[in-house]
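cron nightly-structures :: item 1 of 1
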Amino acid sequence: MADCIVYVDADNQAAALAPALLRALGGRALVPQAIELFGHTKGPHLAKWSQTLRGLATVPVHATRVPCRSQAADVALLLALGARLERHLQQQLRVVIVSRDNLLLATAQRLQDLGARVLVCHGPCTPATCEVESLVLPQASPGAETLSLLGRIRAQVPAEESGGYRKSLVGALLRRAGLDRRGRADFFASVPGLRTQRTAGDRLLFM
């Protein structure tokens, strides 16, 4: 067994990945000493991560809230990691970064160049383009909220002849349901088998 410290970019990755993250760490015999969460004050993402992990993990979970500005959470994560880097190196802790953000991928690469042992984790998407060990976490099964929204889309958004739904109309419904940009991205990531197709002036979503 080896100790690790986990840094989560809560604005970049969906909280639904938390169970898969803990399973993946356990499968690699990695034991978190602590889990550090970073996210902005607007939107539910940081709170969802915190609530989910505190119900699953037996280690300290710390949440850092920052103003809703571009890359504010990334900068907070970088500063926290930098302040503790020497300690991580001395204790030979594996640094786990949960994000697909290019800035944090570059940080992971630099940490490895400095001698740190680094693991990058993120949900299903284009694989991380860096030389650091990366782990794609499996997509979580759709939860009750996703299933409820899918039901509303199918009931309220007219389907095209091909069976797809116009993304602009789906997006408008999700905004009315209270989902911000990150929330809409989390929803689409949670829909199993989602396909898109370009049409004139819009995209069709098949789900």
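cron nightly-structures :: done
The chain has seven helices and nine strands.
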